[in-house]
Amino acid sequence: GDYASVTYKDKTLYAIVGDIGPKDVLGEGSPALARGVGVDPHPVTGGLQTASVEYRILPGSGNATSPRTSWEVQRNASQAFAAAGAVLK
Questions:
Q1: Phi first, then psi: what are they for 59, rounded to 5°?
Q2: Which of 15, 51, 53, 83 is the most exposed place for a label (fewest CB within 10 A)?
Q3: Which of 9, 47, 45, 12 lies closest to 30, judged by CA?
Q4: What is the spatial distance between Cα 4 and Cα 88, in angstroms, rounded to a whole number?
Q5: Are 55 and 19 in contact (CB under 8 A)?
Q6: pLDDT by residue for the chain (89 residues), tens digit each?
């Protein structure tokens, strides 16, 4: 439920961390997130095979018990990252 920033090339969006495994893999995102940062969202042919996406996670920032709209995630995560002193492009 913590907030994350996801940057690919010149686009950054905020997201909610919801992945629970496997422990040694990070980087699976929703089709909407992929589309938003300019990655092909197709479940079979889309995605990226390189480490060219940057993820930043703000520990302790989320609320895993309450659903949020995409708009709320963008606004609240932006505020949380700013309050933490994280400057994103």
A1: -60, 140
A2: 51
A3: 47
A4: 11
A5: no
A6: 899 999 999 999 999 988 766 777 766 788 899 999 999 999 888 888 776 888 899 988 877 777 788 899 999 999 999 998 865 55
- The whole-angstrom separation of Cα 84 and Cα 55 is 16
User: What is the pTM for the complete model shown?
Assistant: 0.80
Q: What is the rounded CA–CA span in Å between residue 83 and residue 33?
A: 23
- Which contacts qualify for 32-39: CB closer than 8 Å, 24 or more apart? 32/70, 33/6, 36/11, 37/6, 37/7, 37/8, 37/9, 37/11, 37/12, 37/13, 38/8, 38/9, 38/11, 39/8
